[in-house]
Each structure stands twice: as structure tokens, then as C-alpha cells.
Amino acid sequence: MTTFVYSPSPLAPRTHPLISRTQLKNTLATTHERFSHEMVNRLKTQCLVHLQNHSSVLGFLNFSSKPHISPHFSVPSSRESFQAIVSRVCAILSQGRWKESSELKQLSPQLKAHHVAEIVAVHRDTQSVLVRDREFAPADHIRILMIKYCKNEEEIRRAVAFLDEISGKDFGFSLYSSNTLLIQLAKLEMVEAARNLYKQMLNSGIKPSLLTFNTLINILCKKGEVREAELILSQLFKYEFSPDVFTYTSLILGYCRNHKLDLAFGVFDRMVKEGCDPNSVTYSTLINGLCNVRRVEEALDMLEEMIEKGIEPTVYTYTLPITALCAIEREEEAIELVAGMKKRGCHPNVQTYTALISGLSRVGKLEVAIGLYHKMLKEGLIPNTVTYNALINELCAGGRFSDALKIFHWMEGHGSLANSQTYNEIIKGLCLGSDIEKAMILFEKMLKMGPFPTVVTYNTLINGYLTKGNVNNAARLLDLMKENGCQPDEWTYNELVSGFSKWGKLEYASFYFQEMVKCGLSPNLVSYTALIDGHSKDGKVDIALSLFERMEETGCSLNVESYNAVINGLSKENRFSEAEKICDKMAEQGLLPNVITYTTLIDGLCRNGRTQFAFKIFHDMEKRKCLPNLYTYSSLIYGLCQEGKASEAEMLLNEMERKGVDPDEVTFTSLIDGFVVQGRMDHAFLLLRRMVDMGCKPNYRTYSVLLKGLQKECLLLEEKVAVQHEAVYSCSPHEKDVNFEIVSNLLARMSEIGCEPTLDTYNVLISGLCMKGRLNEAKQLVKDMEERSFSPEREIYYSLLTAHCKSLEVDLALKIFNLIEAKGFQLHLSIYRALIYALCKAGRAEEAQDLFANMLDKQWNTDEIVWTVLVDGLLKEGELDLCMKLLHIMESRNFSPNRLTYEILGRELSRIGKSIETEPLADKLKVLKDGN
Question: Do residues 675 and 690 touch, judged by C-beta distance below 8 A?
């Protein structure tokens, strides 16, 4: 028999070329469960005649001096009986004529996998018995099984290391076991190990078979190493083998992987010329290669060709062009192809349906995609994670977050493993739907149960907080990201710089900009432009200009948006000569001003009372075929109204409509304000009617402008009456505020013009009044809407509750809180924060603790509770005692915050002048740090 001696193995770990038997016993123990059943059956049926042959694999299964007991096997009734059996078998094996032992035959049926593992571990001379009896064929068979059962790179390295140890000079690898190992290496894509194995086969005198060459060529071609594969092909000819369909198909695969389709077709032509008939795999490989480079028509031709030649396409073959057609939005043809495959008796599989569902969803045919999803379920096909991800992504993109959540929870309930992409999609959807609290619950689940959050997860949540203006939690999430070993990327810092700039936190925006540089990340166009825009809008134009210059110096390409940000700042500061120079510089760079550039200049001029010059730019942009947009017209309308030219502004509104530019609430509000200032209330209300008829919803600013006009109208009327009666008229300060009578007048005037108040009208007015501290008027308005058979929506309740909390009317706040719960509306942490703080200020700390304890019964992210309720709520207001009591309640209920969150609490305590060393928090932090 041709043998193959490994010394040392190409698979042995480089740092430990020789692994001791003890190490192997300990490290490989857990893998025996995969094939212990088979081993036990062999031992039982052959009465341990081949125990010496099994020693290698059994040693591999469990090398521990303490037996590893698999859950698949029964456990001995006692340790004594277990040891008794093992000891007796070992004693028999030590005898010279153990094969003839009748006692061994009696014990054999009682042996389980854990017995055998212990016997091999204890019976040290098994290997010498194996060599002595020269029963190599069964041993080689066990070795092959052992290799086949390896499921990953670590397992196969350890297995071969062990095989090296037990393989003596006379017990080397055979061609069969070598090929088995080579195939397993190919499956695990261990290219370098496969190369070494092939070389050692040649060095050991093992003559390769066609299977050897094909396996090696295939693994090289899968990695795109076609040149090396061609060299192996030349050696194949030296051994007088002829390439078969597998050989040629592997080479075609290699060229397709390298996007060298011409060479792939060259191999195809050569195999046909050599009389080697292509099979379905050959055609599928070429079709896949064509689809990958968007040559879909040629792929479809190949499909037709294989059918004409009598080669039946597989479901995989069909799925390739179906996926490609969906990717280029030719979903109708993809559906036709599915119909064609069904006619040929080839039924779509999960991958086929997933391709269609993804493609249809992307082009907006979500209902059809959902229909296909239900169809695949009826056909007994179980959707995979990719299918679910496609549906969840498109449902979220279409704003159907509840449907996306249903699918996600269905996945959880039916054991479908959601990956990080699934979580990221649903978290993104929740953030888009302004429900970041639910997103944070999923995030905590990822941290505790997996899959672990990725940089995309953190970036999505940071963006979600910044969109809502919660910059504190965005910053905390960045710290948590670093704490958990996930490195922020350019997107992370771009989001932070943009978000903090947007909310006027320029100091923090600049800090993150600098931190980005320190981390070795280069600020790009997005981060620079965001920072420039933030400083420009904040009136810090000189800083914006210095950033603009720095951007040029660092070689970061400027675009129109960068120039527009600087021009905007200069225009608002009435520095038009400098703005003009920037425009000239922009033109020198070959960048044409866009509608935003022109609108920025127009807006700056209008806000500085230079509307006449603004119109010159307006006409100039029209001459340059740059069409004005909504913001251009809105700026001009605002400017004209500020100069008392409301009628001219209305003419611009008419021009907008003629040109198909829809005005928004800002446009209408500016115009309404223009007529209100002139005292033309009737016309102002007609504009309101026009606004509503166009489907444009008034905001609180719109209504407040009209309320201001009605109040002014009322005061003028009272003044007139007073003059007629020769009385001295005086208006006290409180009468200058809007009262409910004025609000009622607004609603009445709206009804007069056929613009009946709606639920949305009440929502906007009540929320606005609450924000302005006009709680009495808001409550009266709630009563009025209920009399009109309108039921308050959750936003109204939120606004009223918050307003009551601010005025410390805690009983009324609690009443509304109970109403919100009874109606099933979602309660946010910000609501709990407001109510808990109000109870605390009202001297009702015990009720605050009870409310907090009840809050914990609902689902929340533990860290977010601390950030929102304790840090940004109680500690911010100096309520240390209650804060620590609530923290204790959390801990007693097993709501343990992250170590970082404890540090945040510590920093906040220091900020309010409390020493952390005097608090239990210090001990907690010490324990957490020691634990890490």
C-alpha cells in the first residue's frame, strides 16, 4: 500500500508545530458528538475487535481524562459503575489474547460513547496494538470519517495534528484518505493547506488521481487563481489523464470569477472541440458570469442554447438570470421566466422567490412582492433571512413599520435566525418612524443575545437621536460604541458633525471633527460642509470662511454645496461684496451656480430689506435657464411682505401656481402675515381657505399670525368704542395675550369662509398653546373640540401632560397620564421624566418612585432609562436623592446599566458638585472595572 507520511503537517498550527496529546485531549473533547453513534454501533457489533483501529478517531473524539458526556447518550447510574466497566475493559485489552475474551463480548453491548472515549484515553498502548496487528484498512476508514466530519478550519487543523501524532512510518495516508482531506480543505477554502498537501503527496510518492487534480484545480479557480490552475492542468496531462467536464467547468468558473468572459468561452469551445460535453453546471457557470457583468441578454441566449441541446436547466440555472433581470428592473421578464421554468417542471426555490420579492419591492411593487411571499409559504417553502430582509427593508422604506415589525416578530417566534442586517433594517425603520425607543430595545437585545451590533447599527441609532434633536444620547451612544469595541467610521463622525451643527451645538460639532482627524479618518466633503453651514447659520461667518480655506488646503474638493454654505452666511450678514467674490471663485472652479446658490443670495437680500436687488438676481437666474424653486419664491414673497407689498407678493403666488411650483406653509404664512399687518383680515382668511384647498396644512405659526391679527382687530374696535364714549382707553399687559375668546373667534371666522376646523386644527392649536404656556386656553379648546364630537389624539394628551407638569399641576397631569394608558397610547420616556420630576418638586417622591417602578414593567432599553429619566431629568435639576433611589430600584429589579452609563452618572454627579466617592455608585463602578 502506498503510504503518505506527514512530518510536519501542512495544517499544523504554525505557532505550535507539535501539539501534545494532553492538549488535544482537552481541546478536541467537544467534537465527539457528531459521530459517536456510529462509532458505538461499530464497537458493539464487532465486540471491540477493531478497537485498536478506532483509537485515532476515538482519541480525537475525547482526549480528556475526564469523560465528556454527550446529551445524546444515557448517563451511567453511578460513577462507580462507569469506572468499573472502563477498568475491566482496559484490563482485558492489556492481555495478549483479548480478541478471544468472552467477557469482552458480554461487556460490549453495555458500552456507550463516553465509555469508549475513556477507554482510549486511559489505554495508552492502543496505538502499539494497532501497528502490531497491522489492521490498517479499518483504521484508514475511520481516519477518513474523522476528516469528513470536520466542520471548520480549526477542527480540521486539530484533527490532522492528532493524526500526525498517531501515524507511524507504516501508517501513512493513502491516496483515498489524502483525496478526502484535499476535498475537505477545498470545502473550507483552505487554499494554502491544499497546496502543501498536494506537494507532500508528490514528495511521498503518492500518485495523484484525476480526482486529486480536479479538486486542486477547482479550489484554485474558486479563488480566481487560474494561472496556477493551468499549471496543475499541465501536470494532469503528464500523468496521462484527460480533463473531464469537472476540470473544464472549474477553469470556466475561474475565468468568470476574474470577469474574463472571453477566456471562459475559450475554455468552453475547447472542451466541446475535445469531445467533452458541457453539463448544466457548465452552462450555469457561464450564465452566472454573464449576469455578474450585466450581459443579461447573452445569459438568456445561453439558457436557450442549453435547452435546445437537451440539457435541462436546474432551478439554480433559472434563478441566476431571474435575479439579474430583477436587479436591472426588468421584473416583468423575470416573472415570465419563472412561468417558463414551471412549464418545464422546474419549480422555483427559496432563492428564486427571494430574487423576485427583492426586485419587485425595489421598484415599488410591494403588494405583488407580499403576494409572492404568501405564495411561497403555501408551497411549503420556508423564507430565508435574505427574503425577510428584502421585505422588511421595503416595508420600512414605504413607511409600513408595523407590517415590518410583524415579519420581524414572526421570524423570532418561528426560530428564523435574524442576522445583523435584519436588525439594522428594522432599527432603521423604527428610527425613520421616530420610534427610537423601540429601536433601542432591539439594540439592547442584540447586545445581550446577538447578533452583535455593527457599525451600521450604531450609525443608524446615532442618526435617529440626532434627527430628533437628542444630541446627548447621540454622544452617549458613540461612547457606548467605543466601549463595546466597535470602531466609529467616517459615517459616524459625519452624522455627529452634521447633527450637532444642525442643532447649533457648534462646540461639540468641532470637537467631533477634531476627534475624527485624531482617529486617522480624513474629514470629507460632508463633514466640512456641515461645519461650514452650521457656523454660517449661527452668524460665525469668519470661522466658516477659515474652514472653507482649510478645506481647500487639505485637498478636499469643494462642491456647489460648500460654496452655497459660505454664500449663505455672508448674505445673511449683509456682506454681499464678499459673497460675490465667492461666486466668482466658484465660477473659476468650473462650478455653475445652482438654484440654491441663487436662492441663498435672494434670501439674504430680502432679509436685509434689499428686495429690489433680489429681483435682479431672480431675473438673471431665469435668463440662465435656472428655474426658481419653492424656496426662491418664498424668499421673495417674504421680502415683499416685509416691505408692505403684500399684493405684489400674491402675484408671485399666482405665478408659482402657473409654473407648477406648489407653495408650502411657509409661503402661505408669510403672505397671510403680509395682509394681517395691513389690517386686511378678510383677505388673510381667504388665503387660509386657498391654502387648505391646496392640501397645505397650516402650522401653529400660521394660526398665531391670524390670532395676532384678530387680537389687533379686537383692540382697535374696543379703542374705537372707547373714543366714541369719550372714555380713556388703556390696555393692561395680560389683555395683550391671546385669550380663549380670540381663539374662538378664529374658529368662527374659519367656519364663515367654509373652512371648518378639523381634528388637525385642534391638534396644532392645542399643542402650540401648551408650548407657549397658555394652558387654560388649551384646556378650553379641548372642551370645545369634544363638544364638536372630536376625540383628542395622543399628541394633544402629550402636550397637556407636559404643560401640567411644567406648572406642577401633578393631579391633572396624573389624570391625563391614566387616560393615555387607558386609551393604549404609547408612553415615551420623556413623559415619565416630566411626570417623575413634577412629583418630586411637588414633594410627592414616594409616588414618583411607584411610577418609576411601574414604568420598569414595560419594555425599555436599560441605559436609555438612566440617560433620559435620571441624568437628563433628575440630576440635571439637582434631584440627587431621588435619582439614587430610582437607580437602586432599577438594580433591585435586575435592570443593570452598562458600565459606561455608571460613569456618565458619576460625571453628572461631579458636575452638580457631589463627590462620587461618597455614593454607592463608586463601589458599583469599582466592581464593574475590576470585572473587566
Answer: no
Angle at 217 between CA 214 and CA 221, to 5 degrees: 135
Contact call for residues 800 and 782 (beta carbons, < 8 A): yes
Distance CA(293)–CA(296), nearest Å, equals: 8
Q: Which residues of the chain have pLDDT under 50?
A: 1-78, 113, 117, 124-134, 728-735, 918
Q: Name the grid cell of 475.
A: 454622544
Asked whether 861 and 440 are in contact (CB, 8 A), the reply is yes
Report helix, strand or coil for 599: helix
Tell how far CA 84 is from the center of its chain. Answer: 56
Residue carrying C-alpha cell 460625571:
907
CA distance 439 to 467: 14
Of 361, 427, 410, 351, nearest to 386 (Cα)?
351
Predicted local distance difference test score (pLDDT) of residue 36: 35
The set of cell numbers assigned to 453 is: 451590533
Render pLDDT for 139-193 as a digit per residue (tens, 0 to 9).
666 677 778 777 888 888 877 777 776 665 556 778 888 888 889 888 888 989 8
Angle at 771 between CA 766 and CA 772, to 5 degrees: 100
Cβ-Cβ contacts under 8 Å for 61 (sequence gap 6 or more): 28, 29, 31, 32, 35, 36, 39, 113, 117
Cβ-in-10-Å burial (0-12, 13-18, 19+) of 309 comes to: exposed
pLDDT for the residue numbered 552: 83
Return the C-alpha cell found at 340: 417558463
With a CB cutoff of 8 Å and minimum separation 6, the contacts of 827 are: 817, 820, 821, 858
Helix (H, G, I), strand (E, B) or coil at 7: coil
Report the alpha-carbon distance of residue 676 to residue 670 in Å, rounded.
10
The type of residue at 191 is V
Give the 3-state secondary structure of 569-587: HHHHCCCHHHHHHHHHHHH
Phi, psi of 55 (to 5 degrees): -60, -35
Q: From CA 130, how far away is CA 143, in angstroms rounded?
A: 13
Reported as a single tens digit per residue, the pLDDT across 1-60 is 333 333 333 333 333 332 333 333 333 333 333 333 333 333 333 333 333 333 333 233
In DSSP notation, 120-139 reads HHH-TTHHHHHHHHT-HHHH
- The Cα–Cα gap between 187 and 218 comes to 10
Cell numbers describing residue 332: 416583468
CA distances (Å), 239 to each of 180, 242, 243, 382, in order?
20, 9, 11, 47
CB 535, CB 556: distance < 8 Å: no
Contact 863, 901 (CB under 8 A): yes
Residue 166: the pLDDT is 61
Instruction: Please give the radius of gyration of the chain, using alpha carbons only, rounded to the nearest integer.
Output: 39
The enclosing H or E element of 199 equals helix 191-203
Closest to 464 in 3D by CA, of 494, 440, 486, 484: 440
Whole-angstrom distance, CA of residue 77 vs CA of residue 348: 52
Which residues contact residue 740 at a Cβ distance below 8 angstroms, ignoring those fewer than 6 apart? Answer: 776, 777, 780, 781
Q: Are 337 and 318 in contact, with CB atoms under 8 Å apart?
A: yes
Question: What's the CA gap between 614 and 619, in Å, rounded?
Answer: 9
Q: Residue 584: which of 566, 603, 557 has the closest Cα?
A: 566
C-alpha cell at 925: 463602578
pLDDT (0 to 100) of residue 663: 95
Cα dihedral 189, 191, 194, 198 sign: positive
3-state secondary structure 843-880: CCHHHHHHHHHHHCCCCCCHHHHHHHHHHHHHHCCCCH
